[in-house]
Amino acid sequence: MTSPVAELRAFLRAALVSPVPRRHEDAPAVQRRRRLVVAATFVVGVAALPATLRIAPGDARFYPAAAGLAAVWAVGALASGPLHLGSGHTRRGARLSRPVVQSLALGVLTLVVFLVGALAVARVPLLREPVDDLLDHARFGSLPAVLGVTVLNGVVEELYFRGALYAALPRTRAVGVTAVLYTLTTVASGVPLLVLAAAVVGLLTALQRRVTGGVLGPMITHVTWSSGMLLLLPPVLQLTR
């Protein structure tokens, strides 16, 4: 009988380490266009992000601003060229399938690790207060609307960062560069833990993109983690008060 540690190791290897056969290569003309569109989108997205983050919790302008930022990432990603869903390893290893269950499991595992870490971090006021301020959008606004924005942004950020941007980069540098650039976009938030979370999630989803060859796995993992944090982090923080 396989031990839980061995099962976890095998799961992480299949999800983050061992690539499936790659089936898609851009033609040179497509790659040139993709790089131009990706660069322009990044400039616009990074310029628009601080304005969205500065909107006070409860202000109705937050929702159209967040939707507008999501539109920037989505339009840039889709205009850059073909994007692919990708495939994942199955448990038996005999064939490939869409990485749905695997990505859900990785998202839940990441969520649990973050929530456990939050119990310790929440006792440090310097780290906790910026997180509380960020969660105020859900406390003083519409939780369903904020959840919708969270899911939407998780999808479009993966379309852009692990879809278009990843495909525009040399294969040997794509994991590191996309993770670093994604992390840098959160610096303007002024929330140290959000920057750390972006670094961890950005690296995990970039490794998923390398393994699966597409954006479906990263999108599922990102949305599972981000929506779970929105819904579960407030009650977890409440335990430390």
Describe the structure in your own words.
Helix 2 (28-53) runs antiparallel to helix 3, helix 2 runs antiparallel to helix 6 and helix 6 (143-168) runs antiparallel to helix 9. The model has no long low-confidence stretch (mean pLDDT 89). The protein has one domain (25-238). It has nine helices and two strands. The protein has a two-stranded antiparallel sheet with strand order 1-2. It is an all-alpha fold and 241 residues long.
What layout of secondary structure does this protein have?
Elements: H1 4-16, H2 28-53, H3 62-80, E1 88-89, E2 96-97, H4 100-121, H5 125-140, H6 143-168, H7 174-184, H8 192-212, H9 216-238
Antiparallel strand pairs: 1-2
Q: Report the span from N to C terminus.
A: 43 Å
The percent range for helix content is over 70%
Shape descriptor reads: globular
What is the overall pLDDT average?
89
How many whole angstroms does the radius of gyration measure?
Answer: 18 Å
- List the domain count as a whole number: 1
Structural class: mainly alpha
Largest sheet: 2 strands, antiparallel
β-strand percent reads under 5%
Q: In which order are the strands of the major sheet placed? A: 1-2
Uncertain regions: pLDDT < 50 for 5+ in a row? none
The helix count comes to: 9
Kindly state the number of beta strands.
2
- Elements, N to C (H/E): HHHEEHHHHHH
